[in-house]
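--- STAGE predict ---
source: upstream dedup step, 1 unique chain passed
mode: sequence only
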Amino acid sequence: MDRILLAGLMKAELPGHTILLCDGGFVTWNGETYLGVDETFGTVDKFVPPEEGVGDVIPAGTLTMLPNGSASAIALSQPAFQGSRIRFWIAEIVEATGMIVGNPDLQADWQLDRTNLKSKRGDRSLDIDMVSTAQRLLAKVEGVCLSSSSHSSIFPGERGFDNATGLGVNFAWGVASPPRGVVASNTGA
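--- STAGE serialize ---
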């Protein structure tokens, strides 16, 4: 009977560099090799589980990395990296062969929000705050409305709303038409 091990995989797709990390050793999946340490950006120290959002607050989590010196911590904090995709999987690995069984289970599909470098007495860590990619759904797009001028400002040359006038009046769901024969009057006392 094969013994199955669990491994965490992380893929951070940054402009110009992809970080592929696993939580120990190495494993190959989808033609990519996940290592315990990225030679440019270091390794993962800890991952604070995501907190569920309520109302207009979206889920968020924090990943703490141990960078390979100040230069890599500064490089990982580039403004161009904000919004980069970061994904986490749990993989089942056959201990004897080191091969992944089936497809790893996607745990989170995040985007990099901001970083915070912490340094004290030679110890350096970089907290990476991540948010769900659903954050895009909460972006405010003020000034956009269902009108010809607004539509053509987004899609130049598209004139589909130019003649959208005189449309029918919508009634509440389940009502065929407004009630007939009802007269409202103020009889007073």
